[in-house]
């Protein structure tokens, strides 16, 4: 037997090495990000816009006023946002916090002005969170956010935020029928969260109040770290809110009237990524005493939100 027959040629070895490198890159690209490899998100200024529509009555004014105040507190004191603008639908009353008393009115005109001003300030490395709270109505085609004066629906709302340059963009649409905002707001690199499915989920939502509670008074890390990867991410925050809501409906023996969605792969379709972390009683498929570390859903939603790490400050505790 000749030497050439006993050992592979240089060309064969080179081809094998190239194939191995390609396969390794595909595998690495498909693995979920870990706490050691993910970034902390945007490195510039963290800005937010909180919009609350009309409350409708005194009881809801108090509820939404308190929720918006907690959201502002959570963003500024817990997550270190440098600039949080608030637009509130009602005229303030004496019992409101200063955040509400100093807020702009949440008219369509003021909303458009605020977004225009944001565009002039936002830089490519900045973060922008938009949180929308309040009532809405669905006419069979559009989900209308109820504002003082002319309302605004999902298509026109999304146009206000088209082509933003901020590296981190997160939208919490927490009104009834908010699932209809997912598709028009969807964009590559953007996270869109809705309180409801794209369906006739028209009941008043509890999502914004639970979100505000967690942001303003975050639980211990072990409770928030849903995927048990050692870091608290936007994904963990979303699933925690969704899971707490699901359990709340179970505790009250009520049929859940809101099913939150998360969309962060740019395809315009939201996913109930929390389903792998909810028990069957809560409406999910997680098995008791069997932790889910890193579920892989077919849509790919959840990957981008895992890369946005949240560093909660507990100095106020």
Describe this structure in words.
The protein has 317 residues and is α/β, with parallel strands linked by helices. The protein is built from eleven helices and ten strands. The chain has a domain at 46-219 and 250-271: 3-Layer(aba) Sandwich (Rossmann fold), CATH 3.40.50.1460. 35% of the residues lie in helices and 14% in strands. The strands form two sheets. Strands 3-2-1-4-8-9-10 form a seven-stranded mixed β-sheet, sandwiched between helices. Strands 5-6-7 form a three-stranded antiparallel β-sheet. α3 packs parallel to α8 (207-216) and α8 (207-216) packs across α10. The longest helix has 21 residues, at 10-30.
Summarize the structure.
With 317 residues, the chain is an alpha/beta fold.
Task: Set out the fold topology.
Elements: H1 3-6, H2 10-30, E1 46-52, H3 58-78, E2 83-88, H4 98-101, E3 104-105, H5 108-121, E4 127-133, E5 136-138, E6 143-145, E7 152-153, H6 154-160, E8 168-173, H7 182-185, E9 190-194, H8 207-216, H9 221-224, H10 234-251, E10 261-263, H11 303-306
Parallel strand pairs: 1-2, 1-4, 2-3, 4-8, 8-9
Antiparallel strand pairs: 5-6, 6-7, 9-10
Helix pairs in contact: 3-8, 8-10
Radius of gyration: 22 Å
- In the CATH hierarchy, the architecture of the domain at 46-219 and 250-271 is 3-Layer(aba) Sandwich
Regarding quaternary structure, what we see is single chain
Please identify the structural class as seen in this structure.
alpha/beta
- Average pLDDT confidence is 87
């Amino acid at each position: 037997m000749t030497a050439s027959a006993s050992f592979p040629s240089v060309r064969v070895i080179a081809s094998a090495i190239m194939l191995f490198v390609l396969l390794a890159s595909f595998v690495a690209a498909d693995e979920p990000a870990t706490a050691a490899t993910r970034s902390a998100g945007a490195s510039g200024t963290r800005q937010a816009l909180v919009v609350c529509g009309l409350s409708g009555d005194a009881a809801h004014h108090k509820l939404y006023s308190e929720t918006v105040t907690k959201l502002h507190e959570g963003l500024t004191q817990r997550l270190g946002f440098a600039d949080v603008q608030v637009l509130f639908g009602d005229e303030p009353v004496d019992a409101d916090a200063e955040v509400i008393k100093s807020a702009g009115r949440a008219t369509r005109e003021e909303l458009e002005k605020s977004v225009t001003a944001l565009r002039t300030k936002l830089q490519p490395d900045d973060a922008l969170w938009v949180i929308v709270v309040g009532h809405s109505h669905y006419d069979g085609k559009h989900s209308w956010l109820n504002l003082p004066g002319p309302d605004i629906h999902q298509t026109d709302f999304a146009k206000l935020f088209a082509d933003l340059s901020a590296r981190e963009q997160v939208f919490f649409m927490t009104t009834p029928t908010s699932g209809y905002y997912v598709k028009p707001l969807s964009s590559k690199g953007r996270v869109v969260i809705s309180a409801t499915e794209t369906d006739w989920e028209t009941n008043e939502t509890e999502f914004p109040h639970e979100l505000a509670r967690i942001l303003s008074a975050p639980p211990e890390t072990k409770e928030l770290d849903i995927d048990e990867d050692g870091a608290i991410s936007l994904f963990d925050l979303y699933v925690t809110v969704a899971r707490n809501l699901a359990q709340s409906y179970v505790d009250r023996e009520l049929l859940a009237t809101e099913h939150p969605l998360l969309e962060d792969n740019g395809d315009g379709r939201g996913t109930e990524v929390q389903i792998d972390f909810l028990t069957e009683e809560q409406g999910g498929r997680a098995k008791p005493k069997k932790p889910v570390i890193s579920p892989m859903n077919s849509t790919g939603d959840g990957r981008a939100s895992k890369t946005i790490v949240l560093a909660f400050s507990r100095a106020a505790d």
